[in-house]
Amino acid sequence: MPLDLSHVGATIAVMNLRAQRLHTAKREGLVGRLARMERLGDMRAEALVAGWEVEGERVGVGRDHEDFWALGREWIAEQLGEAGAT
Q1: Of the candidates 37, 33, 66, 67, the residue with the CA atom closest to the CA atom of residue 49
Q2: Does residue 61 fall inside a structural domain?
Q3: Which residue from 20, 29, 57, 61 has the highest number of Cβ atoms inside 10 Å of its Cβ?
Q4: What tens digit of pLDDT does each residue of 6-47 get?
Q5: Concatenated DSSP letters for 42-77?
Q6: Between vectors from CA 76 to CA 31 and to CA 62, what angle results, nearest 5°?
């Protein structure tokens, strides 16, 4: 009897959707915290988070990496420290 794998595609699609939603929620949360708690404003916070997404990919830390956002917060803190030093 052949193995029925017809459900696998749908399962993967649901997993991808969940991963995308989780990524989006974490991203929006970080932008919000930066904008309000760090008083950077929405545009600056968005630019920093977008910058991390580019840098993360550049250094091989893809958005599926479990520490993507923790490393992103560190990178953003470094950017803010450098901006404050100039």
Answers
A1: 33
A2: yes
A3: 61
A4: 555 555 566 688 888 999 999 999 999 999 988 899 999 999
A5: HHHHHHHHHHHHHHHHHTT--TTSTTHHHHHHHHHH
A6: 85
- In the block, which residue shows the tokens 């929620």? 25
Please count the other Cβ atoms lying within 10 Å of the Cβ belonging to residue 22. Answer: 11
Tell me whether residue 15 is in a domain.
Answer: yes
Q: Which domain holds residue 63?
A: 8-85
Q: Residue 51 corresponds to which tokens in the numbers above?
A: 């910058």
Q: Is residue 1 part of a domain?
A: no
45: its two tokens:
């916070």
Locate 39 and state its tokens: 């008083």
pTM, two decimals, is 0.76
Tell whether 2 is covered by a domain: no
Could you give the C-alpha distances from 14 to 35, 47, 64, 81, in angstroms and in order? 31, 30, 15, 39
Q: How far apart are CA 76 and CA 54, in angstroms?
A: 12
